[in-house]
Design brief:
Aspartate Aminotransferase, domain 2, 352 residues, alpha/beta, 11 strands, homotetramer, seven-stranded mixed β-sheet, Aspartate Aminotransferase, domain 1
Chain lengths: 352, 352, 352, 352
């Protein structure tokens, strides 16, 4: 019963198989491997972006930080949601890679910035006043950290605000596949057709070992990305193993199938919990993450029986009154089984 | 006939097998996987350093830049050889991670700093004068970029100079195993017993897919390393795949066996070339890298027949007079075969 | 009628005289001038801090950014008020000098953080979790940007929160003298006796040409400050001219007299405006800055007749309906005259 | 007998007078003072550069570091002489402001890079290879740190090399006036007519209190300069005092007159020493700095009698054998008197 994180899941068999296969014989290093040529081609097709520059790195933090660094000056402001990964979960990687930038928090319910709040935040950054950090760029997370999903039109609404100020837009898509599956839109609709300039296209959480693509729709910044990637220590010598993962991930819609499974299992889980009056959902759920609240006793039952997931905040404890409500995050992955879900549901069923 | 780089070689079967094996079931993320506990234990044993802090990253540049960053202030000077990887091959990663440091070049033949040159360089950096970059640290590469090897006593001699000024010493060991095999010393003798404070212990070039350990003998800097690693985007979520590589690498002396093969094949190659009067060796060779010079015609014969290796400088060309001498670097790896070597030797044999 | 900024005022005659006097003959450079010895001694006496390290720089942004940089790691969080100078008016200097730090905004009315909000902010930064920016330090502004003043006991309350987490406390005292005069406390009570570790002690706004002292109560960080100052381009070669300003500023309580004048004139101004029903005060005022709101027509009358001050926000306009209320900031300085105030009061008197 | 540094000299009477005069009444802050308009105009005229952007800062290190930062990417290489101020005397300010750049040392006798060495250095930086720091920019110092002077044609020869690689050229002119006087060329000939893109135009060492202008011939980088200046803490609030210094400096050729005096006194000094067989000159001298060698006894006589200047290296001592030769630097300033020189010459005259 693993609902802790999609990072705790292993890699899909097809991905592992591709890594094994890539191992045969010598191969050019540092991204010059022929598998990378295939990856570049596939991503361009999937995103309907024949000019896009495509790069691979090993972690989502690297993908995000490098994406921000090539789009934001050191004195620029990155507009992001308070719950975003760049703000909360990267130990200041954006500030480090940008060279001392500033993240400005843009509110919105359920992990989603509103266009109005974004407008206020950007508009409230004085233009042409040397005393303040300048307007920089916008970064949107989809699937959000709250497990919610922006539709393409919602992204387009944010991008319109950004574009009104000529600011580039980044999409942190560490769970991009889950968002695409949840909305049913195309990758192009989720990104450049909605005004997104650069994407962190995640693989790791969705069945890879460790690979994220950065897709840059305007290739003018490509060389700078390459330099920053190398300088950041993120250019892999035996790059073929990153390429192989991504290649398999993109083959026969594997990336969509894995995400569809994860989303589907989250739905199975939420359907089960929705029938329990002691469970409350904290956010609308559309992808593979659920935030719920239930009395402590149910958490205790589940966790003591081996269910693994995180209470929110991390400092929450199983010790305390039975009926005090505690929040929790439950994540399904590409390999979450029906059995895990049903077992968990049985554990938190009201025994009354 | 692959002599281009040990980065062009694949991964050893044992390493790939371990990655496959690690894939089963869920696992804690971000370095909390149980395999990492084994790795930590093994490295401490191999280095006879029960207190050492041990971390894994995906690239050698990351290992080096993070190691320097925790040991050198932003206004510090890193003393290194002009041919070192940190100076030439990392696109300024040390300066970036240190926060604007300065690398000062310390001369010495065949890729090896001399203690005298190091003494002059450190001594020549004024102490307590706010106008200049300050004394920072020393970094030594072993196996060197010239394919030569420092003995433990040579490293100790450099460390003694560093210690005289209370400077920490880093060892860039992207080819650490080759140096250990070449000298016959123990890892401890090569490092802390010779005054080294922190090591980039390479796996990638010697049969892994992509993993380098950083071994910090004084764990006081461990937490800072963790923060800088995360902030640099170098903490892997599915860390188990790094752990699994390193675990297999360290099992049953695999790391030494792979390096012994690479070194042995380089010896086979050099023995063959030593019998050819038109071949000159540019550096003493003790590990898995040879630098040679021969008339262009032989390079042409070899490369046209499929031998892959790099001319020095990169801009050198196969076009030109037959008898003009051109330098080249030849690298053997854990999987270089007798057949590749013999085939290459046949190609460059004097047909006269 | 200059109420725009105390930065628009010139220098006090005593300060200018000291600069002239310092010009005679040669003098050691880079802070080794004998006048600096006097300055150091005087500041130590005034702050009752015989061990304090004392340095001079030319701007308040430099004083602040360097003070933060020696007290906060690159991955640290600086807790500050949303209206603070470091957040709003330094174009990211703190982030730049710190090497990519994060400023976290701590709310509170009238420009003053509350201990409760500070507790929540620091406590809400997870400890020992490598994923987030770490707890760093606290910076308090006194006189605040809202023109209000923290009492020593209010500062002590904030410091107690900081100390509970072992965080250093910086005081941005670009208008330190105004706060001391307003509260009647001693410099020591305002700072180290209330838990402050380092102070930007402003001179420029209060009658100097351009000089700010940094007072470091624990001299352990002194050498790092010197290096960062030099490296930041903030060590003046002809340092005697900074020293001379500060020396005169500290002689015969000049700094307090100048601030008392500025505060007194602000009181005269506010007393006059308090009798006008169309004027509203936006913040309590205790020092030399008033924030007021009044219908546009009064601003128009005053400004058209030559009064100089800033509307808030800067984008507010004199064009528009007469009776719409517009906010403004009015600043008195060491040289604001009775005549300027009376003339201004006459202009905004209700003609009805 | 002050020959230690032109930084030890005070300010010229005209400069001090201008500061006094600028003090009257209120003035716009942060560079918007009307005196700055005059300064801008004068510099454009003097440099025959009607489009140039002109900014003032308080120190030479700030002028240099900001000039480099707007012309060099963080991964760029700055080509400079080993004796240059940016390499030796700024505690890593260039690396800090650039964001982790690399300085590559270009040799040449007497403090002057040769075009051949520059060609080799730039050409030796691989182009389009992501592994190495990239080609960045060239910085030339005139008057050099060795007291020698580049002629405009020598600067043009260096610039031609830079331009061949499309690299910008910076001139560190902390002693620009001395070089102009020494060569008899115009400011335009020394700079943009010889291919220089940006100049640190020094005032401090030549009779100001503390002001350096940065002259940017292509104003496209002007806004970035303003942001970096603010962010570096180098935008002065009471900017009028910088403006006033520079305004007086440029009025009635004062800057040239002051430099002519300094250069002339250095010639008087060298003429006197040239008649003494025990004195050797270490570099050709053309400006206001002499490097000489003489037996220790003469240094001892001079210094014991009150002459102030620096031995080279700083660690050299007056204690030791009488006849051992010791190097020294002697600097004349705008206010060095005939009497100081004659007194010094008398002291070092051979008594034999």
């Amino acid at each position: 019963m693993e609902f802790g994180s999609d990072n705790n899941a292993g890699a899909a068999p097809e991905i592992i198989a591709a890594v094994n296969e890539a191992n045969a014989g010598p191969s050019p290093s540092y991204g010059n491997d022929p598998i990378m040529d295939r990856v570049r081609q596939k991503i361009r097709e999937i995103f309907e972006a024949p000019e896009a520059a495509v790069y691979l790195v090993g972690t989502g933090t690297a993908a995000n930080a490098l994406s921000l660094a090539i789009n934001c000056t050191p004195w620029g402001t990155v507009y992001c949601h308070p719950l975003s990964h760049v703000e909360n979960d990267e130990c200041g990687a954006p500030e480090f890679f940008i060279g001392g930038g500033k993240l400005k928090l843009v509110q919105g319910d359920h992990g989603k910035m509103t266009p109005e709040a974004l407008q206020t935040a950007i508009g409230g950054t004085p233009q042409g006043d040397v005393h303040t950090s300048q307007r920089g760029m916008v970064t949107i997370t989809n699937t959000t950290e709250a497990g919610t999903v922006y539709s393409p039109s919602e992204i387009a609404a944010l991008s319109r605000v950004a574009k009104q100020y000529s600011l580039p837009v980044h999409l942190d898509g560490s769970r991009f596949a889950n968002a695409v599956v949840a909305t049913g839109c195309s990758p192009a609709e989720m990104t450049w057709k909605s005004g997104v300039d650069i994407v962190s296209f995640g693989g790791t959480k969705n069945g890879c070992l460790g690979v994220e693509a950065v897709v840059i729709f305007d290739p003018a910044k490509a060389w700078e990305f390459e330099l920053r990637r190398k300088r950041g220590g993120h250019l892999f010598s035996k790059h073929r193993y990153l390429s192989a993962q991504m290649d398999a991930y993109l083959t026969s819609d594997l990336w969509l199938k894995l995400a569809a499974h994860a989303n589907g299992q989250a739905k199975r889980l939420s359907d089960g919990m929705a029938r329990m009056p002691h469970v409350k959902f904290l956010h609308p759920h559309a992808a593979n993450i659920l935030f719920v609240s239930m009395p402590r006793q149910y958490h205790r039952q589940a966790m003591n029986a081996g269910a693994h997931y995180y209470l929110h905040p991390f400092s929450a404890s199983l010790d305390g009154p039975d009926d005090e409500r505690i929040d929790a995050r439950l994540v399904c992955s590409w390999c979450t089984s029906d059995r895990e879900i049903d077992q968990f549901l049985a554990l938190i069923r009201d025994q009354g």
